[in-house]
Amino acid sequence: MPAIPSEHTGARVARLRSIHHLTQTGLAQRANVSTSLVSKVEQGKAPASPAFIGAVARAMGLSTADITGQPYIEELRADQIDTLIQPIREALDIYDLGADPEVRPRPQLALEAAADQLCATVRDTNIKAAATELPALLHEATTAAYLESSTEIWRTLASLYRTAYDIATKLGYADLATLALDRLDWAAVRASDPVLGTLRQYLRGLAYLRAAQYTTGKRLVGMGLRTVEQADAGLLRDVVTGQLHLGAAILAARDKREHDVTGHLAEAQRIADRTGPAEKELWVSFGPANVALHRVAALAELDQYAEAVRAARGVDLSTLPPSRVGHHHADVARAEMWSGRPEDAYASLRRARSVAPQQTRYSPVVRQTMEDLTSHYRSVPDSFSNFAHWIGM
Question: How far does CA 151 lie from the centroid of its chain?
Answer without folding.
Answer: 28
